[in-house]
Each structure stands twice: as C-alpha cells, then as structure tokens.
From TrEMBL:
EC number: 2.4.1.25
Annotated protein name in UniProt: 4-alpha-glucanotransferase
GO biological process, one term: carbohydrate metabolic process
Native organism: Kushneria sinocarnis
An example Gene Ontology molecular-function term: 4-alpha-glucanotransferase activity
One Pfam entry name: Glyco_hydro_77
Stored InterPro entries: GH (IPR017853), Glyco_hydro_77 (IPR003385)
Keyword vocabulary terms for this entry: Carbohydrate metabolism, Glycosyltransferase, Transferase
KW Transferase (keyword) present: yes
Gene3D superfamilies: Glycosidases
Family: Belongs to the disproportionating enzyme family.
Length: 713
C-alpha cells in the first residue's frame, strides 16, 4: 500500500489534518506519521493500528455524513434567504417548522430532499423536521437550532449610519493591567479604565481597545499572561474596582499600609497585589453580605441576584472551579473524583461550598458591572465604538474552561505556530484551542459563549490569531513546535456565528491576521466584514521600503505597533535587540544592529525625518503616518502615545523579560502631557478635521460622573 493511500493518511485527510503544508519560505513540508497519530489522538481519533483507524473513520463519517436526521448535529448554520443544506437527505414533502426568538412560527414543506430556504431575518431559530403529512406520522425527525447569519459582520459603515459619519476613525490600545489611579493598590482596574476613556473621548477618540480581561487563576498569582487564561467565559476579578460600584461603607480600609508601596512600583508585584486584593474583596463581600435591606445596599443585592441568575450554569461552574482551587490548590493535586464538573464528587462539593462559590460570583459581578460602566461612560462621552475587547486564541488546559467544557477543548494539544523567518524553531503558546469535532457535536455552545463574554460590554472585539477560525497549528504536548500539524476548523460555521453575534451586539470585529496566513483567508475575512490589522513594521513595498499611507488597506485597522512588537521609540533605539541579546535569543547581534540601521534609514525616508532624529520626532512621524493611512480605523498603542521605550511582551520569553508587568506613568490616565495632547490633536486634525475642540469639550463634560455610588438599572 502506497504512503499516499494509507488508511492513516485517509483518516487524517477526513479529520482535516494537513499531511502536506508550505512553510513561510514557500518550502513544501510533510508531517510524519508519528505526529499524525499523536495529533489524531488529541482530536479524539485514535490511530494506533488499523482497527483504531477504522473505528475513528466511522466516527467521522457519522459526524460529517449522517445517514438520517437523528444523527444531525444540534446546530446548523445558513445565510440570509439562501438554501439551507441539511446534513442528509429527507423525503420530499417532509415538513419543517421554524420558531424564532419571539415565539413566531413558520412552517412548510421541503422543496427538495435535504433543502429548505433560510429566513430573511438573521437570528437563532428552533428547527424541527417532521414526516410528510401524508405519512400519518407525528414523530419529530430532528429538533435543533438553525443559525441564520447576516451577509457580513456589523461594521464601521453601520456605525456611520447611526452616529456622526466619519470616513476615518481613530482610537487607542490600552493595557488594562498597567493603568494607574490613586487607590488602585498596584494593578489597573475598571475605575482607572473609566477615567481613561472619559479623557480619551474628550480628545475625539472613538475607541479604546483593551488587553484581554479573561479570568486567570485566583490561586496562582504567577500565571499572569492575559493570553493564557483559565477561562474566556468570565473575567479577571483582580481588575474589579469595588469602590466604583459600592459605597465607602463596604470598601473602606482597602489595602491598608501596603497599598502605597504597591502603587509606587514600576513593575506589578503580582503575588503581593493578588494577596492584598483577595483579602480586600473578601472583606467587602462579608460587609456586603451582612447589609440589611435595600436602603443600606442601594438595591445592589437584588442586582447581584439577577446577575447570578442570568449567567446561570456557566458562572456557577467557574466559581466552583475557583472554590476547588482554594481548597485543594492546583488542579493536578485535586482528590480523585473532581476531574470534571459532572463528576458526583464535584457536584457534592458545589453543594457544600455555597458561600465560597457566592464569593467568587460576587467578584465576577463587580468586574462585570465595572466593565459595563466603562463602556457606558465611553458611549455617553461621545465615542462611536467605545471599548474593543480582546479574545485570546486559547485557554490554559488546566483552567476553568477546559475543566467545565472538556468536550469542546483540546487539552492534550497545544496551539502554536510552525517555524518562520522570525521564529526559526516555531512557537508553542501553551494554550488549548477548541476541538473542531467537539464544536460540531456540542452545537458551538462554548464558542458562542466566548463571543458573548467579549461582546457583553464592548463596541467591538479583536480575535487573537484569527486564522484559528480556519486552521490552527496544533502540537502534541511535550513535542517540539516543529512536530505539529495544521488542523482545519469549520470556518464557514464560525464566521457565520461571528457575524450574527456582531450584529446582535452592534459591535465591529477585528481579526488579528499577522504572520503566516493561508492563501485567500484575508479576502474571506474582508467579505465577511472583519477588519484585518495593518501594522507599520509589516507594511512594506516590494523594495522593502515602508508602504505609503495611501496604500494601506481601507477596510482594516492601521497601527504603529502591538503588544508583541517593539514600541516606535524602542525600535528606533534598538531596545528590542538589547533585550534579545541580553537573553541570548539572537546569534548575531552585530548583524541585527546593522540591519536595523538600514531599516532606520527606510523608516526615516517614509516619515520625512532625519536619520539622526530623536525618538520623540520618530514617534510623532509614525503616528502621523498611521493617521494619514487609508484604513478606516487607526489604533495607537498607549505606549506610543506616551513615547515609551519598553514593549509589553517579548515573545519567546517566560522569565527574564517583565512581560505583562509594566505600569504606565502616573500621568498616563489623564492624557495631559504636552506631547500627548499634541499627538491627540494631530490625530484629530488628520482623521477628523471637521470636529473642533469645543465640541469635544462639551461632550467630555457631559459625561462627568455623578458623585457617589451608582445603582445599576
């Protein structure tokens, strides 16, 4: 039997695992059989011998080619007013019944075996397929959900139809953890975020894209990466600001004597901050729990109860996970019988630990309401978009989401990237992605929950490594990043769900499409109305020179840099090379510095500045170039607005570089320095020349908060 027709290869092809692929240098590569077997096993398709391969093959056939409606997946997708291709044929004349979200019912007969026409209104419909009336049978052949997607995602043009039309909008990107305010205890929080968005709106800013605020690990303050969260379904409670919502009666004596020391640090001391914040949050919860009557708690207890009911099982399961960690430490050390939420011992633990679970639900309520308040402040102050939330590509395989949603999470395969010119050894990001087969089996439930958590209090979302909607490089745990394979995902279904949720929340979608991207993928994103990212460092012409701003993609987001790349000032001064040389990450530093000198000349030519310009001039020039770009949205990192040298994260490092630890200068939230005000004025004059400062000043003061705690509606 030839290699190309082996049962293993046929199984891999049927499972969407690419046997052959092309690397960043356009070299053809082939995945070894051992890697194929390991990846297939991680997908839940054992392939150790011919018997296992045959069994796995039959499982795939039942999932992708069901014989009858009883085997159909629980969720189907379609586009507006187009034929719905049902998973298998049913007799012509069979009846369909569609129930919309308001209880409206439509029914009819299938026009042809296996096809019906989707409604002209997007939404979630309950679909039933019943036997033909003439058969006399009343059984339901299928009952599930039909998702009808709009033609594209909600976009900037739709915002223009609702608000003051602007051809080119602009905003900031902001690390929530690094923001400062007096009384924050050493870590950025939602109150600091609210302060910043109010100030930014007063300068004409339309959006503030924030770092991920996914839940991390309450029991382990060393796990700090916002891109390796415990769960994307809930938030990081350490960013909660109880004094933003509750009266001083509940929040006094916040951080005691340690607060002043922690707030003065340039780098976040996560263990000390976490310990102090959790102690404070527990005291606040105890006082809140003992408050008597609506007059004392301002009706907030009722709001808390509504919050728990509305978030239901998802919230309670996460809180149970946190309670288990509080009792037993890291999940690897838990007693047997608690490996999954459905285990009887885990269920019994949840019933016993109601108070601890209520505490963690309380902290989720605080962060949820804080984010809601920040977004409301942004919109009321005149921002057309407001917050743009960031959704990480994966979760920790030891975290809450993987524990409560194992059927949709690949806990034995790591997401990463194959070798390329920037990372010759490849990358392993140490996070678990969705299971492509589990998504289909479970009706995409967790994917939808993930989108909704990001969109709940935002006017937009950024999808990290958006190629994950189409394919991911998956690496068996313990293997080198080179020993992985590309695995395909149900792209059309995922894009339809993104578009629908985008419209339901009136929120734009940004897809992080940097690095190696499959052919035509950017075009498909564009057709769906998803904005790509165009970052200064990567926008080059055929000659290697920096692209003219007029040549930037219109339906995209133009940026000076990102959290994984050098700041403009840092790049100009070779700070990134300094760090990589210090950590032994480059073999030929002299060669890198010589190459940077050539690049500096190219950038200087593009910006119209001297090659010996001081960093502030370079920053001004880079922001001016991005402001002049043809892209409909420009985002400037707060670090570049401030002229900072250090970058937030140095990819490929865990220790050595202070990733995710840098705090912004004390004046950052106020956006008040002369340099910052000049750069904001330049952005406004270039992007929105018709908006004067008096109009912005009126909008700013109209958003001033009322004194005292706020009672949610």
């Amino acid at each position: 039997m030839s290699e190309l027709t082996s049962p293993l290869h046929r199984l891999a092809e049927a499972a969407g695992v690419s046997i052959d692929w092309v690397d960043g240098s356009n070299t053809a590569r082939r995945v070894s059989d051992d890697v194929l077997r390991a990846v297939l096993a991680g997908l839940g398709l054992p392939a150790g011998d011919e018997e296992e391969i045959a069994t796995s093959r039959q499982r795939l056939i039942r999932l992708h080619q069901p014989e009858h409606p009883a085997q159909w997946p629980p969720l189907l997708t379609a586009r507006l007013a187009q034929p719905v291709a049902l998973p298998s044929a049913v007799p012509a004349g069979s009846r369909w019944v569609l129930t919309d979200e308001n209880g409206g019912v439509r029914e009819g007969e299938l026009t042809a075996p296996g096809e019906l026409s989707a409604p002209a209104q997007p939404g979630y419909y309950q679909l039933e397929i019943r036997p033909a009336a003439a058969s006399g049978e009343e059984a339901v052949l299928y009952r599930g959900t039909l998702v009808v997607a709009p033609e594209r995602a909600f976009g900037l043009a739709d915002i223009d139809a609702m608000a003051l039309p602007r051809e080119r909008r602009y905003g900031l990107t902001v690390p929530v953890y690094g923001l400062r305010r007096q009384g924050d205890g050493g870590l950025g929080d939602t109150a600091a975020l609210e302060q910043l968005v109010r100030r930014a709106a007063g300068s004409g800013v339309d959006s503030v894209a924030i770092s991920p605020v996914h839940a991390l690990f309450a029991h382990d303050a060393e796990r700090i990466s916002p891109y390796a969260p415990s769960s994307r379904l809930v938030y990081n409670a350490l960013h909660a600001a109880p004094d933003q919502l509750l009266a001083e009666t509940f929040t006094r004596e916040a951080f005691e004597l340690d607060r002043v020391r922690l707030e003065a640090l340039e780098l976040i001391d996560y263990p000390a901050v976490a310990a102090a914040r959790w102690r404070w949050l527990r005291r606040v919860f105890e006082r809140f729990s003992h408050a008597r009557g609506a007059a004392e708690d301002h009706g907030l207890k009722a709001d808390f109860a509504r919050f728990r009911r509305s978030h239901g099982r998802m919230l309670e399961e996460h809180c149970c996970f946190e309670a288990l960690c509080a009792s037993f430490g890291d999940p690897a050390g838990w007693p047997a019988g608690h490996e999954h939420i459905e285990r009887p011992k885990a269920q019994a633990f949840m019933r016993r630990q109601r108070e601890e679970i209520a505490f963690h639900a309380f902290t989720q309520w605080l962060i949820d309401r804080g984010l809601a308040r920040a977004q409301r402040t942004a919109v009321e102050a005149g921002m057309a978009i407001g917050l743009i939330a960031d959704i990480a590509v994966g979760v920790s395989p030891q975290g809450s989401q993987a524990w409560s949603r194992p059927g949709e999470t690949l806990t034995t395969l790591d997401v990463g990237a194959p070798p390329d010119e920037f990372n010759p050894h490849g990358q392993n990001w140490g996070v678990a992605g969705f299971s492509p087969l589990g998504l289909i089996r479970e009706g995409f439930a967790t994917f939808i929950e993930t989108l909704r958590a990001g969109l709940r209090h935002a006017g937009g979302i950024r999808l990290d490594h958006t190629m994950g909607l189409s394919r991911l490089w998956l690496i068996p745990q313990g293997a080198a990043p080179t020993e992985g394979a590309y695995v395909s995902y149900p792209e059309e279904d995922l894009l339809r769900l993104v578009a629908l949720e985008s419209w339901r929340h009136r929120a734009i979608v940004i897809g992080e499409d940097l690095g190696t991207v499959a052919p035509d993928f950017r075009q498909r994103l564009n057709e769906w109305g998803i904005l790509g990212m165009r970052v200064l460092w990567f926008e080059r012409g055929d000659d290697g020179g920096f692209r003219s701003p007029a040549d930037y993609t219109r339906d995209a987001v133009a940026m000076t840099s990102t959290h994984d790349l050098p700041t403009v000032a840092g790049w100009w001064q070779e700070r990134d090379i300094d760090w990589r040389q210090h950590l032994g990450l480059i073999d030929e530093p002299a060669q890198e510095r010589a190459g940077r000198e050539e690049e500096r000349q190219r950038l200087a030519a593009a910006l119209g500045i001297a090659t010996d310009a001081v960093p502030a001039e370079v920053v001004d020039g880079a922001i001016r170039l991005i402001a002049r770009s043809a892209s409909r949205l420009a985002l400037i990192p707060l670090e570049d607005l401030l002229g900072e040298i250090e970058q937030a994260n140095l990819p490929g490092t865990v220790n050595g570089h202070p990733n995710w630890c840098r705090r912004q200068p004390p004046e950052a939230n106020r956006l008040a320095s002369d340099a910052v005000q000049a750069r904001l004025a330049m952005l406004r004059q270039i992007r929105n020349p018709g908006v004067d400062s008096a109009t912005l000043e009126r909008a700013y003061h109209a958003s001033d908060p009322a004194p005292g705690p706020e009672t949610p509606s």
